[in-house]
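Reviewers of the previous submission asked for a worked example of the structure-prediction workflow described in the proposal, so we include one complete record here. The input consisted solely of the amino acid sequence. No template or homolog information was supplied to the procedure at any stage.
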Amino acid sequence: MKVNGVEVEDTFAEAFDSWYSRFIITAVNEKWAHIAATEATGFGTSLIACTAEAGIERILSPSETPDSRPGCAVQVFAPKKKLPMELIKRIGQCVLTAPTTRVFSLGEGEPVDVGYKLKYFGDGYEEVRSAFEREMVAVPIMMGEFMIERNLTIAKGVAGGNFIILASSAESALAAAERAVEAIAEQEGTITPFPGGVVASGSKVGSKKYKFMHATTNERFCPTLKDKVEDSALDASVNAVIEVVIDGVSVDAVAEAMRLGIEAATQVEGVRRITAGNYGGNLGKHKIYLRELF
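From that input alone, the workflow returned the following structure tokens.
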């Protein structure tokens, strides 16, 4: 099958269940809301080595936030038992410390008392009060008050949706990936957790040589190894490969984000083929077939 003249392989992306929290960070202006959200989602690319997968879902206008200020919708993915403490650490270290910020729960799920536990930074001077039609914790800080909703929520989502762009040059691959990430940003409920939304170092599970490694380079997709690897997935026309990984609130949201991203990427000159990463169904139960997206 071809999309915009580019071959889309008959394969599937393998995604898996993962717990997430979705919340809003607001501030006096978009600049500080975005700074706080960027800090809170840092070191959040892959659970291979990070304590969470995290990203900014989208920028929110004042009409979309509980306190009528600019904000960012954020998602953090982690194992269920570890997720509440992950939220406490990220919000406590990266949002409470940022000027003028507030935090509000976004979406349904199981309540976790993240805000209530962060109150202890107030050393007895904190208050629990009703504000913005929600139960809020107000912590006195040097800039005034940091406010966070008493309970955030956690729910089961989907991580690991992906597609891989094979291109004639690094310039084409990067342009296609950037275009894809911009398109995916329009899909509510999804994030692209890697730097700028893209993965330059797509990996495989385990290692052929080093038993202590949980993941290593995917040599079949490395252009510099085309002539060294017997089962290389690349032909002479492909000189750069880049991956886009998507997490989201549901399989449907992730699948639609993949469709939008592939549609956008295939409009870039120099893109030769689109495929996806999977492990034969051994990693996750959700198989998102590329051809079924169109």
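The domain at 19-155 is CATH 3.30.70.520 (Alpha-Beta Plaits). We consider this example representative of the routine output the project will generate in years two and three.
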